[in-house]
Amino acid sequence: MAPREWTLRTRFDPEVCAQRLKARINSDYNWFGSKPAQGTVGRGWARLRKQIGYRNSFQTVMDVSMTPARDHTLLSCRAGLSPFVWAFAFVWVGLLGLLWLGGLTDLFLNGVGADGGGLVFVLFPLGMIGFGAALLAFGRWLARDEATFLLAFVRETLEADLVNEAG
């Protein structure tokens, strides 16, 4: 799940790159658009994802930064999970970990009650972490070819050549 990175080179300057990308994408809020990608384009940067007809929070997002050079523009492309998904996952696992530690402490101090109540706060967080991991795996499976799609989309739109690939 590590991000994949590429460096591309195009003959267009960053302003033309931004115009060309804007013309070929739907806005972030256009869920049923007819263009192949959606996202946001700013001055010297873009954040893109494949246009799909459903919501997938685990969808691949490509960040593109455009650096002007003498007679070309270098495009640094990075594809992976959204930073918001990473932050949410960190908080999710952290809170469930605290709940689990509290339940484990209670279990050691008080033992298992007659109704088995002490085990709930030990097993429930583990089940929720397992559910989150399964949801992540399914979402990433749905997005399995999107990095390749987005790279091809940027290369075609900006008539860019691949300089190198990392990750």
In CATH, the topology of the largest domain is named TATA-Binding Protein
- Quaternary state of this entry equals single chain
- What distance lies between the first and last C-alpha atoms, to the nearest angstrom? 10 Å
| Rg (CA only) | 22 Å
What is the CATH class designation of the largest domain?
Alpha Beta
Low-confidence runs (pLDDT<50, min 5 residues)? none
Going by CATH, the architecture of the largest domain would be 2-Layer Sandwich
Number of strands: 7
Which strand order does the major sheet show? Answer: 2-3-4-5-6-1-7
Give a verbal description of the structure.
With 167 residues, the protein is of the alpha+beta class. It has two domains: 4-81 and 145-166, Kinase associated domain 1, KA1 (TATA-Binding Protein, 2-Layer Sandwich), CATH 3.30.310.80; 84-139. Helices cover 47% and strands 26% of the residues. Strands 2-3-4-5-6-1-7 form a seven-stranded mixed β-sheet, covered by helices on one side. Strand 3 (37-42) and strand 4 (45-50) form a beta hairpin. The longest helix has 28 residues, at 83-110. The protein starts with a strand and ends with a strand.
